[in-house]
Amino acid sequence: MRKTLIGLALIGTGLITGGTLVHAGFVDVAADSPHSGIVLNLITWVRDRALARQTRDIVPPTDLTDAGRIQRGAGNYAAMCAGCHLIPGVQKSEIRQGLYPQPPNLSLAPTADDLSRLDARRFWIIKHGIKASGMPAWAQGGMGDGAIWDLTAFLKALPSLSSEEYRQLVAGSDGHVHEGMAHDHEHGDHAH
After folding, report:
1. For residue 79, what are the contacts with CB-CB under 8 A and spacing of at least 6?
2. What is the SS3 assignment for 105?
3. Rounded to whole angstroms, how far apart are CA atoms 135 and 128?
4. What is the pLDDT of residues 138-181, one digit of tens each?
5. 20 to 30 A from 23, CA-CA: which of 5, 72, 92, 145?
6. Longest CA pairwise span in the chain (Å)
7. The model's pTM
8. What sign results for the dihedral spanned by CA atoms 76, 135, 119, 159?
9. How far apart are CA 152 and CA 122, in angstroms?
10. What residues contact 63, with CB distance under 8 A and at least 6 apart?
Protein backbone atom coordinates (compact mmCIF):
# COMPACT_ATOMS: atom_id res chain seq x y z
CA MET A 1 0.00 0.00 0.00
CA ARG A 2 2.82 2.37 0.93
CA LYS A 3 4.56 1.83 -2.44
CA THR A 4 1.32 2.60 -4.24
CA LEU A 5 0.90 5.85 -2.33
CA ILE A 6 4.51 6.87 -3.04
CA GLY A 7 4.03 6.05 -6.72
CA LEU A 8 0.84 8.10 -6.90
CA ALA A 9 2.55 11.00 -5.10
CA LEU A 10 5.43 10.94 -7.59
CA ILE A 11 3.04 10.85 -10.55
CA GLY A 12 1.02 13.71 -9.06
CA THR A 13 4.15 15.77 -8.42
CA GLY A 14 5.31 15.14 -11.99
CA LEU A 15 1.96 16.20 -13.43
CA ILE A 16 1.85 19.36 -11.30
CA THR A 17 5.46 20.25 -12.24
CA GLY A 18 4.80 19.59 -15.94
CA GLY A 19 1.56 21.56 -15.85
CA THR A 20 3.31 24.48 -14.17
CA LEU A 21 6.06 24.52 -16.82
CA VAL A 22 3.49 24.39 -19.62
CA HIS A 23 1.33 27.10 -18.04
CA ALA A 24 4.38 29.35 -17.52
CA GLY A 25 5.23 29.09 -21.23
CA PHE A 26 8.48 27.15 -20.88
CA VAL A 27 7.64 24.65 -23.64
CA ASP A 28 9.45 25.64 -26.85
CA VAL A 29 6.99 25.47 -29.76
CA ALA A 30 9.28 27.03 -32.40
CA ALA A 31 9.43 25.08 -35.67
CA ASP A 32 13.18 25.74 -35.91
CA SER A 33 13.87 24.08 -32.55
CA PRO A 34 13.67 20.26 -32.73
CA HIS A 35 11.97 18.10 -30.10
CA SER A 36 14.13 16.16 -27.68
CA GLY A 37 14.74 12.54 -28.65
CA ILE A 38 12.31 11.31 -26.00
CA VAL A 39 9.51 13.64 -27.14
CA LEU A 40 10.09 12.84 -30.84
CA ASN A 41 10.05 9.10 -30.15
CA LEU A 42 6.85 9.43 -28.11
CA ILE A 43 5.11 11.48 -30.83
CA THR A 44 6.22 9.02 -33.53
CA TRP A 45 5.04 6.04 -31.48
CA VAL A 46 1.65 7.65 -30.76
CA ARG A 47 1.19 8.56 -34.46
CA ASP A 48 2.16 5.09 -35.69
CA ARG A 49 -0.13 3.34 -33.20
CA ALA A 50 -3.04 5.63 -34.11
CA LEU A 51 -2.48 5.10 -37.84
CA ALA A 52 -2.31 1.33 -37.41
CA ARG A 53 -5.70 1.41 -35.67
CA GLN A 54 -7.30 3.95 -38.03
CA THR A 55 -6.24 2.13 -41.20
CA ARG A 56 -6.88 -1.49 -40.25
CA ASP A 57 -10.23 -1.67 -42.06
CA ILE A 58 -9.27 0.31 -45.17
CA VAL A 59 -9.14 -1.90 -48.26
CA PRO A 60 -7.25 -0.29 -51.15
CA PRO A 61 -8.72 -0.64 -54.63
CA THR A 62 -7.07 -3.24 -56.83
CA ASP A 63 -6.30 -0.78 -59.64
CA LEU A 64 -3.64 1.40 -57.97
CA THR A 65 -1.25 0.61 -60.83
CA ASP A 66 -3.73 1.85 -63.46
CA ALA A 67 -2.08 4.47 -65.70
CA GLY A 68 -5.18 6.69 -65.65
CA ARG A 69 -5.27 6.77 -61.87
CA ILE A 70 -1.57 7.54 -61.70
CA GLN A 71 -1.86 10.36 -64.23
CA ARG A 72 -4.85 11.91 -62.45
CA GLY A 73 -2.92 11.73 -59.18
CA ALA A 74 0.11 13.42 -60.80
CA GLY A 75 -1.75 16.68 -61.40
CA ASN A 76 -3.00 16.86 -57.83
CA TYR A 77 0.42 15.92 -56.43
CA ALA A 78 2.11 18.69 -58.42
CA ALA A 79 -0.42 21.26 -57.21
CA MET A 80 -0.90 20.17 -53.62
CA CYS A 81 2.04 18.07 -52.43
CA ALA A 82 5.27 18.71 -54.34
CA GLY A 83 6.26 21.81 -52.39
CA CYS A 84 6.52 19.85 -49.15
CA HIS A 85 7.11 16.28 -50.32
CA LEU A 86 9.38 17.06 -53.32
CA ILE A 87 9.69 15.67 -56.84
CA PRO A 88 12.31 13.48 -58.50
CA GLY A 89 15.66 15.25 -58.70
CA VAL A 90 14.79 17.96 -56.15
CA GLN A 91 16.33 17.82 -52.68
CA LYS A 92 14.70 20.80 -50.96
CA SER A 93 12.08 23.49 -51.34
CA GLU A 94 11.50 26.82 -49.66
CA ILE A 95 8.50 25.68 -47.64
CA ARG A 96 10.01 22.32 -46.72
CA GLN A 97 13.07 24.04 -45.23
CA GLY A 98 10.88 25.69 -42.59
CA LEU A 99 8.68 22.74 -41.63
CA TYR A 100 9.20 20.73 -38.46
CA PRO A 101 8.85 17.90 -38.44
CA GLN A 102 10.13 17.81 -41.98
CA PRO A 103 7.72 15.89 -44.23
CA PRO A 104 8.93 12.71 -45.90
CA ASN A 105 10.46 12.99 -49.36
CA LEU A 106 7.87 10.95 -51.24
CA SER A 107 9.95 10.86 -54.41
CA LEU A 108 12.21 8.36 -52.62
CA ALA A 109 11.35 4.71 -51.98
CA PRO A 110 9.61 4.25 -48.61
CA THR A 111 11.76 2.88 -45.81
CA ALA A 112 9.12 1.80 -43.28
CA ASP A 113 9.51 -1.65 -41.79
CA ASP A 114 5.94 -2.69 -42.67
CA LEU A 115 4.95 -1.66 -46.20
CA SER A 116 1.94 -3.99 -46.38
CA ARG A 117 -0.46 -1.29 -45.17
CA LEU A 118 1.29 1.66 -46.85
CA ASP A 119 -1.48 2.37 -49.38
CA ALA A 120 -4.16 2.43 -46.66
CA ARG A 121 -1.91 4.59 -44.48
CA ARG A 122 -1.29 7.09 -47.28
CA PHE A 123 -5.01 7.23 -48.11
CA TRP A 124 -5.93 7.94 -44.49
CA ILE A 125 -3.21 10.59 -44.05
CA ILE A 126 -4.22 12.42 -47.24
CA LYS A 127 -7.89 12.29 -46.25
CA HIS A 128 -7.57 13.22 -42.57
CA GLY A 129 -4.17 14.94 -42.24
CA ILE A 130 -1.86 14.78 -39.22
CA LYS A 131 -2.31 17.22 -36.33
CA ALA A 132 0.51 19.70 -35.61
CA SER A 133 2.59 18.53 -38.58
CA GLY A 134 1.49 20.82 -41.39
CA MET A 135 -0.20 17.90 -43.20
CA PRO A 136 -3.72 19.08 -44.09
CA ALA A 137 -6.89 16.99 -44.17
CA TRP A 138 -7.49 17.27 -47.93
CA ALA A 139 -11.02 15.84 -47.63
CA GLN A 140 -11.95 19.00 -45.72
CA GLY A 141 -11.02 20.98 -48.84
CA GLY A 142 -13.39 18.97 -51.03
CA MET A 143 -11.16 16.10 -52.15
CA GLY A 144 -13.22 12.91 -52.40
CA ASP A 145 -12.12 9.32 -51.93
CA GLY A 146 -11.66 8.67 -55.67
CA ALA A 147 -9.21 11.53 -56.06
CA ILE A 148 -7.43 10.49 -52.86
CA TRP A 149 -7.00 6.96 -54.23
CA ASP A 150 -5.67 8.49 -57.49
CA LEU A 151 -3.12 10.41 -55.46
CA THR A 152 -2.27 7.25 -53.51
CA ALA A 153 -1.72 5.42 -56.83
CA PHE A 154 0.59 8.21 -57.97
CA LEU A 155 2.58 8.02 -54.71
CA LYS A 156 3.09 4.31 -55.31
CA ALA A 157 4.63 5.08 -58.73
CA LEU A 158 6.53 8.26 -57.80
CA PRO A 159 9.79 6.72 -56.50
CA SER A 160 10.35 4.92 -59.83
CA LEU A 161 9.95 8.10 -61.92
CA SER A 162 12.76 10.17 -63.37
CA SER A 163 12.45 13.98 -63.39
CA GLU A 164 11.42 13.88 -67.04
CA GLU A 165 8.84 11.10 -66.53
CA TYR A 166 7.38 13.08 -63.62
CA ARG A 167 7.09 16.25 -65.72
CA GLN A 168 5.45 14.30 -68.58
CA LEU A 169 2.87 12.75 -66.25
CA VAL A 170 2.02 16.15 -64.76
CA ALA A 171 1.84 17.80 -68.20
CA GLY A 172 -0.44 15.01 -69.43
CA SER A 173 -2.76 15.24 -66.44
CA ASP A 174 -5.82 17.43 -66.14
CA GLY A 175 -3.99 19.44 -63.48
CA HIS A 176 -5.41 20.05 -60.05
CA VAL A 177 -8.82 18.42 -60.34
CA HIS A 178 -10.84 16.42 -57.87
CA GLU A 179 -14.51 15.50 -57.75
CA GLY A 180 -15.70 18.37 -59.88
CA MET A 181 -13.33 20.93 -58.38
CA ALA A 182 -11.01 22.25 -61.05
CA HIS A 183 -8.36 24.81 -60.18
CA ASP A 184 -6.53 27.11 -62.53
CA HIS A 185 -2.95 26.00 -61.89
CA GLU A 186 -0.59 25.33 -64.73
CA HIS A 187 -0.52 21.66 -63.68
CA GLY A 188 0.97 22.80 -60.39
CA ASP A 189 4.34 23.28 -62.01
CA HIS A 190 5.96 25.25 -59.21
CA ALA A 191 9.51 26.52 -59.42
CA HIS A 192 11.73 24.38 -57.23
Report:
1. 175, 176, 183, 185, 187, 188
2. coil
3. 9
4. 999 999 999 999 999 999 999 999 999 999 999 999 988 876 55
5. 5
6. 72
7. 0.83
8. positive
9. 6
10. 69, 153
